[in-house]
Amino acid sequence: MADIENQIKEFAKSIGFDEVAITDASPFLDDEKAALERIRSGKMDGLSWYTEERVKKMNNPEILLPGAKSIISLLTSYLGDEPDPKNSLKGKMARYSWGDDYHNVIKKRLKILCEKLPEILNTEVRTRTFVDDGPMNDRAAARRSGLGWFGKNTNILNAKFGSWFFLSQVILDVDLVKDSPLNKTCGSCIRCIDACPTGAINDSYEIDTQKCISYLTIELRGKIPINLRSLMGDWVFGCDICQDVCPVNRKAQKGNSIEFQQRPGFSTPDLIHILKMDQDEFSKTYKNSPVKRTKLIGLKRNACVALGNNKNPDAVPSLREILIDESNLLKSHAAWALGQIGGIEAMDCLKRAVNNEENSDVLKEIYLAIKNCEDNQNVSV
Questions:
Q1: Do the Cβ atoms of 43 and 208 come closer than 8 Å?
Q2: Alpha-carbon gap, residue 322 to 17, rounded angstroms
Q3: Whole-angstrom distance, CA of residue 310 vs CA of residue 233
Q4: Long-range contacts of range 351-354, CB-CB < 8 Å, 24 or more positions apart?
Q5: What is the reported pLDDT for 2?
Q6: What beta strand segments (E) does the chain contain?
Q7: Which one of 77, 81, 195, 329 has the largest count of C-beta atoms within 10 Å of its C-beta?
């Protein structure tokens, strides 16, 4: 029987997966309990789709595929070249977003794998696949299969590929010989906890979602809390800080998927260019890219925050245009950015905006920005 498992693994690797492991389809009871506790304690606030009903589904493979017996857990590395050079008019995007949308790439490979399974198993087989897009606990499956261990930053860590990879699964109604979990942990290392600028990672292997820069730049649809903006640096889509500092990633092996190679300018995007984008250009630039999830207004909002943190006065004219012509959401963040940059030109923009702005929320942001300029003595007042 072990030969069948090896055939599955070898075929999966031949079509682009980097690591493969197998576990049974029994419930992930401890994970379900922990997830429910996080929801009830408010640690998952902001993710409206992450409900108790979803948690119960994602931790019970039998619900997802009646008659489920096994889970094939698959790893696909996206680690490639280093980011392009950057300056204070450029931002940063998480590595996983530099190439094609991983959902589309991996789904095609899973389809090929599932079509091959009846031949390898010499029997009919029912399957259901997941690529971070449905109620499936991918990390629990990866950990139990031995594909990796659970890191303190909540990522799955793999000795060969670090944490720079996507997870996917095939649930099937055939018994397979399962692999064993790894006897590894992060030990006493707390580098990811110490490095997180917003304090989103705690020592209980949990993330405070509403403090996570990835959540703030992608999932959050409204205003970014003022107290967190200055902590976000120049990230405009996702965040890699906790992975960059992880010792396991020091010698991580690069993947072979050309689909995840960096598109020109994706690692360090031009922030001024983002502010000038219209919907057509956004749709064209980020077609088949994970970045489209943040939507144009979200990307512009994030660019304003990044420019404010980078404090380059050359950004003032573009931020002034946002403050005059854009939505209230973008005006608020542009005002904040001008207050961070400071200087006579920025102060002039803010004072002129006071006379033309009617929205109370935007006015509040403008006044706070003016006060910030004054408090920091960035201009003569």
A1: yes
A2: 44
A3: 7
A4: 353/323, 353/324
A5: 62
A6: 19-24, 70-77, 92-93, 127-130, 149-150, 156-157, 165-172, 201-202, 206-207, 235-237
A7: 77
Q: How far apart are CA 105 and CA 81, in angstroms?
A: 19
Over residues 255-281, the pLDDT tens digits come to 989 999 999 999 999 999 999 999 999
Q: What is the pLDDT of residues 311-352, one digit of tens each?
A: 999 999 999 999 998 899 999 999 999 999 999 999 999 999
What pLDDT score was predicted for residue 380?
Answer: 39
Q: Residue holding tokens 């799955």?
A: 156
Residues 6+ apart with CB under 8 A from 287: none
Distance CA 262, CA 80 (A): 8
Sign of CA dihedral 259, 102, 87, 366: positive
Rounded CA-CA distance 233/214 in Å is 12
Name the residue with tokens 């997941």. Answer: 130
> Are 150 and 138 within 8 A, CB to CB?
no
Q: List Cα–Cα distances, 161 to 148, 150, 156, 263, 271, in angstroms.
A: 10, 14, 10, 21, 31
Q: Angle 244-91-332 (CA atoms, 0-180°, nearest 5)?
A: 120
Give the type of residue at 136: M
Catalytic site positions: 132
The SS3 assignment for 117 reads helix
241 CB-contact burial (10 Å; exposed 0-12 / middle 13-18 / buried 19+): buried
Distance CA 217, CA 229 (A): 10
Extract the tokens encoding 131.
Answer: 């690529």
How far from 259 is each of 11, 65, 89, 207, CA to CA, in Å?
A: 19, 30, 27, 29
Question: In one letter, which amino acid is 202?
Answer: N
pLDDT digits (tens, 9 = 90+) for 12-58: 999 999 999 999 999 999 999 988 888 888 777 777 778 888 899 99
From edge to edge, which strands make up the β-sheet containing 70-77? 19-24, 70-77, 165-172, 127-130
